[in-house]
Amino acid sequence: METRIEIKDLSKNFGKKQALKRIDLQIDQGMFGLLGPNGAGKTTLMKVLTTLTKKSSGEVTLCNIPVEQSSQIRRIIGYLPQEFSMYGNMRAYEALDYLAVLSGMSKQERAEKVPEMLEKVNLGDQHKTKVKAMSGGMKRRLGIAQAIIHDPKIIVVDEPTAGLDPEERVRFRNLLCEIAKDRIVLLSTHIVGDIEATCENIAVLNQGEILFRGKVSQLLEAVKGKVYTAEVSAMELPAIQEKFLVTGILTSGSSATIKIISEKPPMKGAGPAGADVEDAYMYLMHQAQGHRG
Ligand SMILES: Nc1ncnc2c1ncn2[C@@H]1O[C@H](COP(=O)(O)OP(=O)(O)OP(=O)(O)O)[C@@H](O)[C@H]1O
Within 6 Å (CB) of ligand 1, which residues are found? Predict the structure, then answer.
């Protein structure tokens, strides 16, 4: 079975609102990042892929299965939604077992898979912990355990690191990378750091349209040679921000070191600076809003 998601000319309307506009995308094995601001259409796209929402038009196949064949699709896909919640009084293993029952697994399969999955997401020692006593990171890991328990070829994870502390965030990202070794992990986020650390291939979505698809290195290429740094007085900052795309500000007393994206050197004394993915993403969004900086 070919592990691939193919999306051709996909649109999704909610009444007059076009949440997805003629999306074309191909996603292969490994981690794939879907980046975009709130309201870009990421959740809608994930819901179409996971058969929770019907598309309005276009073609979508997952491992060569058309998305319309929802019961077959559900067998090969796992989903961790943005707001994954479980009954607080259930213990980790009870919660996972309960979800496995709902997905139709037999008692025998569950007896084997529930402990195995808890181990995999590092909750083996905490299998008796009640959901209400879990940290945000633990709940997310329990969410991943339920998403992978039926060994799907594709895992869809919406806003995975929201509400996690830095340590939990890194741990969770590492878990996703491990899972992606022999599957597709599609990760939707508005946090550039989430994809920068983990995904080679990405798509940037804005207002229902794909602004960019390709490798993170190609996104960086677009901003290369356009990033500058300058030392300015804090007083000047508002006027500079009005005129230029400022992607970083480090204030120290009455002065500030800023990072600016500009086609030409923006001001006297500005020197070249290294570009990061955040700069490239902000430049892309800025251009999409009709600015030229
Ligand atoms: N059921 C719905 N009915 C009407 N409009 C909807 C519905 N679901 C989503 N939308 C609209 O479609 C657009 C895309 O929403 P979506 O939730 O997919 O964005 P998103 O990128 O996931 O953002 P967020 O990170 O805030 O969830 C938004 O303008 C939203 O208001």
Answer: 14, 17, 19, 36, 38-44, 190
Which residues in 127-151 are b (16+ Cβ under 10 Å) and which e? eebbbeebeebbbbbbbbbbbbbbe
N residues, the chain: 293
CA 262 to centroid of ligand 1, rounded, Å: 32
Global model pTM greater than 0.80: yes
| ipTM summary value | 0.94
pLDDT at 291: 62
Residue of minimum CA distance from atom 14 in ligand 1:
41
> How far from chain centre, in Å, is Cα 6?
18
Residue 37 CA to chain centroid, in angstroms? 11
Ligand 1 centroid vs 85 CA: distance in angstroms?
Answer: 20
Of 291 and 31, more confident: 31
Whether the Cβ atoms of residue 130 and residue 93 lie closer than 8 Å to each other? no
Distance between Cα 246 and ligand 1 center (Å): 28
Q: How far apart are the first and last CA of the chain?
A: 46
Kindly give, in sequence order, each residue whose CB lies less than 8 Å from that of residue 253, ignoring residues fewer than 6 positions away.
Answer: 234
The 3-class secondary structure across 208-262, one letter per residue, is CEEEEEEEHHHHHHCCCCCEEEEEEEHHHHHHHHHHCEEEEEEEECCEEEEEEEC
